[in-house]
Specification:
With 343 residues, this protein is α/β, with parallel strands linked by helices. It has helices at 8-13, 28-44, 62-69, 90-103, 119-122, 125-133, 147-157, 164-174, 178-191, 199-210, 217-222, 226-238, 243-265, 270-276, 282-293, 296-313, 325-335, and strands at 2-4, 20-24, 47-54, 77-83, 108-113, 135-138, 160-162, 195-197. The chain is elongated and about 80 Å long.
């Protein structure tokens, strides 16, 4: 039987454990949580002894049979854990796993830990034998569209909730990194009491950690948040971030704003131009306000300063730049948030 990682909790709550579990997938957080949940359920059900087998390339697969046949002096029931980090048991391992799936003892619970298998391995005889003998828990990555609901469910577990906009905001910040999402959700439990969280509470909590993210600069620029721009650039400098990357992020944002300015002045609807520029979420409305208040000439001047800063970063003469390139970059990014009076 195959189930998803988010179905495991309900399965274990029934109290009837299978004699064999496989946890496999490419999402590390979900795999770790699933393995821990199975271990805890086994311990609560009287599986008092645990044997861990690390099945690397030199592993002797006869040890699995020995572990299955051995009897414990300290507990009537045992947990046998097989860790196969490569997902490739080889011929001996495949035979051993198939044999174990067919003959696993009743007084033992087996947990097999795997990475995500490719199609060939997933359809192999040993993988099918394991699934047929027990429960295969698939720890697949959470897709972006499902991430806000996943976050909302996690908040409910700690007796908290928030509005959809806050869930979307948090999802944007942690997309592609469930471990970061897990940390942010846990931090909300430490900072705030159970109950409804406001958008501002969620936003402030996340930004306090992410303020040194170089890719947060574009949003700070269009929101005219000069304080955050200063903190971010100073933080990037202190953490040893490469100046060329930060300069590229700021330059690309200025190019995007200038392109949007030219297109909207030519009569193109902002929504259409923004879609082409791949703007969405929190940046969309802030960018529209910024474009309407800035002049093309002002943006072009800032881009010219970026070109001079690039020369300075490469060790070339740039007489119009501040001698400190990070201060120059901070000033350029901050000036982008100031409406220019000259069209």
């Amino acid at each position: 039987m195959q189930i998803k990682a988010d179905q495991l909790r309900a399965h274990l709550a029934k109290g009837r454990l299978a004699r064999l579990y496989v946890v496999g997938g490419d999402e590390a957080l979900l795999a770790i949580e699933a393995q821990d949940a199975i271990r805890n359920a086994a311990r609560s059900s009287g599986f008092g002894e645990r044997t861990v087998l690390h099945a690397d390339a030199r592993f002797d697969w006869s040890l699995l049979e020995q572990a299955a046949r051995s009897r414990s002096l300290f507990s009537d029931r045992r947990l046998i854990e097989v860790r196969l980090p490569s997902g490739k048991p080889g011929k001996d391992g495949a035979d051993a796993l198939q044999a174990h799936a067919s003959n696993a003892p009743e007084d033992a619970l087996t947990l097999v830990c795997l990475p995500r298998l490719d199609r060939g391995a997933r359809e192999s005889g040993w993988a099918r034998a394991l699934e047929a003998a027990g429960v295969w828990v698939e720890a697949a990555a959470v897709e972006r569209a499902a991430l806000p609901d996943w976050i909302g469910t996690r908040l409910q577990r700690q007796r908290q909730s928030t509005q959809r906009a806050a869930l979307e905001f948090l999802a944007e910040r942690v997309e592609g990194n469930l471990l970061a999402a897990h940390q942010e959700i846990g931090k909300l439990a430490l900072l705030f009491e159970p109950g409804e969280l406001s958008f501002e509470q969620v936003k402030d909590s996340v930004l306090n950690v992410a303020r040194y993210d170089v890719f947060s600069l574009p949003l700070a620029m269009v929101e005219a948040d000069r304080a955050r721009i200063g903190r971010t650039i100073e933080g990037l400098r202190a953490e040893g971030e490469a100046l060329p990357l930060a300069l590229w992020v700021v330059s690309e944002q200025l190019r995007t704003l200038l392109r949007l300015k030219h297109e909207t002045e030519a009569g193109r609807p902002f929504a259409s131009a923004a879609r082409e520029a791949r703007l969405w979420g929190a940046r969309l409305a802030a960018t529209e306000r910024a474009v309407s208040s800035m002049s093309a000439g002002h943006l072009a001047t800032l881009l010219s300063r970026c070109a001079q800063l690039d020369r300075l970063a490469k060790g070339l003469p740039a007489p119009r730049c501040d001698s400190d390139p990070w201060l120059e970059l901070a000033d350029i990014a901050a000036q982008a948030s100031i409406p220019a009076s000259v069209p």
